[in-house]
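Backbone geometry:
***
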Amino acid sequence: MLEFLLIIIVLFFSVMVHEYAHGLVALFFGDDTAKRAGRLSLNVARHIDLVGTIIVPLILLGFYVMSGSGVIFGWAKPVPVSAHNLRNPARDYTLVSLAGPLSNILLAFAFAVVWALLAMISLQTSAFLFVARFICFIGVKINIILAVFNLIPIPPLDGSNVVSYLLPYPLSLRYRKIARYGILIIFILILTDTLRYPFLLADYLSRAILDWMYRVGSFLG
């Protein structure tokens, strides 16, 4: 039970940082919508989305408990961004979109650094060190999953904004119309196990990061 609780806590923290990064970068480029809405905050309660932060993670957690395998992920309530307030709307909105996945990648490396340090200094086992290393391990895995998942080019995921920016304007307008079906498409991909492939990629990347960080730490030590 402690394992599942820690997974949910790390997931909540990671999606909160993801949304905070969107709002912070938007503010940097001139849009203070998130700040005025009270969303430029590290208060988890301000970012909770009924479906993405509670229902989907609990459903996936149930599948994980029953099958012994699977992935647990989710999303927070999107931070409001007004593109017309940005200095260069098309370019800046794309950078705002990329800020979320980038924050998860940076978090993953931060967790990996702490994981490697704990691996080098833990000369004896203890409950605290075991829990701390587990938190860091799932911190890497969850954040890489969030980064990869959000970069999938399905509206309203962050990757769709990058694709929309790269497409010619007429195609971009048509592409954005998919957004109304985005959540439905995501659920279909989950139910048909199609998302297994990006999650396998995320699992490979997270393990590669941990292995690389441990090797670097061993070399420096």
Observations:
- The mean pLDDT is 85.
